[in-house]
Write a structure and sequence with these properties.
Blueprint: E1 70-75, H1 82-104, H2 110-115, H3 118-133, E2 136-151, E3 156-172, E4 177-179, E5 188-197, E6 203-212
Parallel strand pairs: 1-2
Antiparallel strand pairs: 2-3, 3-4, 3-5, 5-6
């Protein structure tokens, strides 16, 4: 898990997990350290046979509440394919769930553990813990765009997308200061994720790799 590497450069965070997604067709990735440990309490159920109709209801899903100083734009319109749209919807929630854990300063927050399993869950725990260790949170505006989605066999999928983090910043809690950084090519990040549909019908992230400064994401 290595989300927002430009924003987090000041924290010198450890990057984890690597993945080659043939469906995304990207061989130019810079974050390739692996972490195969399992997060405490993470669901590692290997079942992928649940149908889209078995998707968890809204009542089953953890509530995600984010402060007003965080805003999100997801420029990935519906595809018209129910299964693909479910992948996009759950991926949006997975992004926000990680940010909630950062805001709450809780590296074991149940919301992200609902949407991440295996390597991605272990990496997310370390990712959030680094914020906690540095008494840091996040603020600003995030935009996600240019999704490329492919469905695989037996309830699997690959999704790549871009993030514009030019207006997103680290906020230090003790000093109540915001570290604003200049917008550069590295402010644009591409992500490649590997997902599966679990026994609850939720599309969970199993692996993730990112690359800052990707030419595919430049404005």
């Amino acid at each position: 898990m290595n989300r927002r590497p430009t924003v987090l450069a000041a924290l010198t965070l450890t990057t984890v997990t690597a993945l080659c997604l043939s469906a995304c067709g990207n061989d130019d990735t810079t974050d390739n350290a692996k972490d195969t440990g399992k997060i405490a309490g993470a669901d590692t159920d290997e079942k992928t046979s649940a149908s889209p109709e078995a998707s968890a209801s809204a009542a089953d899903r953890p509530k995600i509440e984010l402060p007003s100083d965080l805003t999100y734009t997801f420029d990935w319109p519906k595809t018209g394919n129910a299964e693909k749209d479910a992948v996009l919807a759950d991926s949006e929630q997975s992004v926000k769930a990680v940010d909630q854990a950062i805001v709450k300063q809780d590296a074991l927050d149940k919301a992200y553990r609902y949407y991440y399993e295996g390597e991605a869950a272990a990496g997310t725990q370390k990712f959030v813990q680094n914020y906690v260790d540095h008494d840091a949170s996040i603020t600003g505006a995030y935009r996600f765009y240019s999704p490329e989605l492919a469905l695989g066999k037996e309830g699997t999928a690959s999704l790549s997308y871009c993030e514009d983090q030019g207006k997103a910043y680290v906020k230090y809690l003790k000093t109540k200061t915001v570290k604003k950084t200049a917008v550069t090519a590295k402010s644009y990040v591409i992500y490649h994720t590997s997902l599966k549909r679990n026994s609850k019908g939720v599309w969970v992230v199993e692996k993730m790799v990112s690359q800052s400064g990707s030419s595919k994401c430049q404005p």
